[in-house]
Amino acid sequence: MRKLCIVTLVVLAGCIPAFTAAAGPSAGVSGFTVSMGHVNELIRSFGQDSQVEIEELRVGIGMNAAVDILSLGDMWSFAVGGKGLFARESSRDVTVSSSLIGLFARATFSLGRLQADLDLGAHRGALSFPDARLLGLSGWGAGLALRVGYGLPITDRLGVTASLGLQWLPVMEMRDGAGQKYRGRGTPFVDFSGIAGSIALNW
User: Fold this and answer.
1) pTM
2) 125 burial class (0-12, 13-18, 19+ CB within 10 angstroms)?
3) Closest Cα partner for 171 from 156, 187, 185, 160?
4) How far apart are CA 78 and CA 68, in angstroms?
5) In terms of Cα–Cα distance, which of 144, 173, 162 is closest to 202?
6) What is the C-alpha separation between 170 and 192, in angstroms, rounded?
7) What digits encode the pLDDT tens for the residues 84-109?
8) What is the DSSP string of 152-167?
9) SS3 of the chain: helix, strand, coil, percent, to 5
10) CA–CA separation, 198 vs 190, rounded Å?
11) Rounded to an integer, what distance in angstroms lies between the CA atom of residue 122 and that of residue 115?
């Protein structure tokens, strides 16, 4: 899991220099809440059985990068990109970590310095909770993110945008390396849905 997180961050960071040669690239970081209802239930059950206190998964961090592929006047633009999101808690050698890697298509509406983004895409989520015998779980899902932001210019071409929004990124079913299926009890098994704040650099 840790290697997956590191590789994803390196890939996204490596995309930034390449994007500067393209039209309308952007790269950002985000912090967000997560709705890990099923995973947190597993954490509570494990804590009661083992007498180990471990915090539930409540927040995460992420990175994303995108590049414009089409502009319609000054108000509309369309982009494609990728994201990597991570949430992790540990206590007394007990670690729970989850990650999500996704690709998305983005539509942006701009009105002066104000802008609204809608991301639609697919993602692959992963979960590692070795002490609960959950190791190497992964699964696919689809989701969306909606943000409203305010941009400020830094130079003639470089700007920064601060945004606040909502994201819906569930993974309903997961599988381990042997192909066994895992589902939540009426909820997604892993869920990165929540409120997100982000800061992005735009070229």
Assistant:
1) 0.84
2) buried
3) 187
4) 6
5) 162
6) 6
7) 999 999 988 899 999 999 999 999 99
8) EESSSS-EEEEEEEEE
9) 15, 60, 25
10) 22
11) 23
Report how far apart, in Å, the C-alpha atoms of 177 and of each of 40, 135, 139 are. Answer: 22, 8, 11
Per-residue model confidence as pLDDT tens digits over 30-88: 999 999 999 999 999 998 888 888 899 999 999 999 999 999 988 999 999 999 999 99
Among 3.40.50.300, 3.90.550.10, 2.40.160.20, 1.10.340.30, what is the CATH number of 2-202? 2.40.160.20
d(CA 85, CA 63): 7
Of 103, 102, 105, nearest to 79 (Cα)?
105
- Determine how many CB atoms are found less than 10 A away from the CB of residue 44: 12
Q: Which residue has the tokens 């009426």?
A: 186
194 is written with which tokens? 């929540």
CB distance 44 to 52 below 8 Å: no
Distance from the Cα of residue 39 to its chain's centroid: 17
Nearest to 200 by CA among 47, 16, 49, 5: 16
Helix (H, G, I), strand (E, B) or coil at 92: coil
Counting Cα atoms < 13 Å in the Cβ hemisphere of 54 gives: 28
Buried b (16+ CB within 10 A) or exposed e, 90-122: eeeebbbbbbbbbebebebebeeeebebebebe
